[in-house]
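Hi there, hope your week has been kind to you so far. Would you mind checking whether the tokens look sensible for this chain? I owe you a coffee for this, so here goes:
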Amino acid sequence: MKIYGDSQSGNCYKLKLVASFLKIPYEWIELDIKNGDTKTESFLKLNPNGKIPILLFDDGRVLSESNAILNFLAEGSELLPKDPFEKAKVLQWQFFEQYSHEPYIAVARFIQHYLGIPEDRRVEYESKQVGGHKALKVMEIQLEKTPYLVGDSMTLADISLFAYTHVSHEGGFDLSQYPKIKEWIQRIQNQKLFLPMNSI
């Protein structure tokens, strides 16, 4: 299998992390979003949506959308609960990540870390802070109850939300007000086979 991604992207990092935890072999194809690598004719043949990550199989099949790929890779593993309700809770957190977390924290990170908060995006950046803190509070409430987002062990829910949360300071989010999130981040980083974000 080949994974096409940008090492700076949290959505791409998720796949590296789950592949490391599950010892899944793959070839990493590094792309640079800012350089237009996802807009080339050859890439658009693989994913007409022009987004990464994608998973390319040896037989030519392509799977896109980070959480869909995560669920495929983790099928049958301890990262995806067998109990239907707990499995649905994992999906609940993954939908939360894509709709209530990533659009705020990841975008704020891009505006600050990569663009330096240009004046024409300052209002947008400040609005992202509100949504991002709302998402972090939701996570903090759950992590006050359980060590991981779906109970006592790590699941895909944690991997999905860890990717951008652990670098949220690059988007201006101060995690000192979220002690349970900080403990959760450390818990994941202490896992055997943990892989830092910029590893290729």
User: Anything to note?
Assistant: The domain at 84-189 is CATH 1.20.1050.10 (Glutathione S-transferase Yfyf (Class Pi); Chain A, domain 2). The longest strand covers residues 2-5.
